[in-house]
Design a protein that fits this description.
Blueprint lengths: L2 H16 L17 E7 L2 E6 L2 E9 L2 H16 L15 E5 L18 E7 L18 E5 L2 E8 L5 H17 L9 E4 L12 E6 L3
Antiparallel strand pairs: 1-2, 2-7, 3-5, 3-6, 4-5, 4-8, 7-9, 8-9
């Protein structure tokens, strides 16, 4: 079987799973996750300091769940072998999604643009890679970006992570930040750790808000 056919079949299987729900990845226990230091923990809310990382990102438009699925397919195509080396790249978790933002001055992400139908979908690349060693995407829609160390306020929850859930959890997190004098430095990021075949009660979802330096 050719690499192209194998990649197509793999993406077709995963895409079929996406139709079952909004969380299109394998179990979090089976994948590498980004490194961070835990600074504060109060119930489901944490403040984390993440180390630098590399992400593969695409920008897609449309309703949130459809945009998530479309973005996932584009990046999955890249990690399943559609790159100049035809190498497969191990999946990690979470897959993240946020509204598209403008880049202001030299900060990687600062001011939110009013573009609720434009989404950035990201896969975090395995830590074994550098920008020099990562295979380059064939599809120009897939960008490889270096993300510096950043701090986030995060709220963790289970369930299906529908739009109502995400809005409610974002509101709880923002009220916590306001009561603790924390300033946001960008739009909320939604992080999904488990596949749609995972029972909703066992799924790990997060809303993450980057903190101003």
């Amino acid at each position: 079987m050719s690499n192209a056919v194998s990649r197509f079949l793999t993406i077709a299987i995963v895409s079929g799973a996406i139709a079952m729900g909004p969380v299109p990845i394998v179990s979090a226990q089976e994948t590498e996750q980004p490194n961070f230091s835990l600074l504060i923990q109060e119930g489901p809310i944490e403040v984390r300091k993440y180390t630098p990382m590399i992400v593969a990102q695409v920008t897609v438009s449309g309703e949130r769940r459809r945009a998530m699925s479309g973005g996932f397919r584009l990046i999955a195509d890249y990690i399943f072998g559609n790159n100049i080396s035809s190498n497969k790249i191990a999946m990690t978790s979470p897959v993240t999604q946020k509204t598209s933002e403008k880049i202001a001055m030299t900060s990687p992400v600062t001011q939110q643009e009013n573009a609720d139908d434009i989404w950035q979908v990201r896969f975090i690349m395995p830590s074994e890679y550098s920008m020099e060693t990562l295979p380059r995407p064939v599809n120009s829609a897939v960008q490889l970006l270096e993300i510096p160390a950043q701090s986030f306020a995060v709220i963790r929850f289970s369930g299906t992570a529908n739009n109502g859930d995400l809005a409610a959890q974002t509101d709880v997190l923002r009220r916590y930040m306001a009561s603790n004098g924390m300033e946001a430095a960008g739009a909320p990021t939604y992080a999904f750790y488990d596949g749609p075949w995972t029972r909703p009660a066992n799924r790990r979802n997060e809303v993450m808000v980057r903190l101003a330096d």
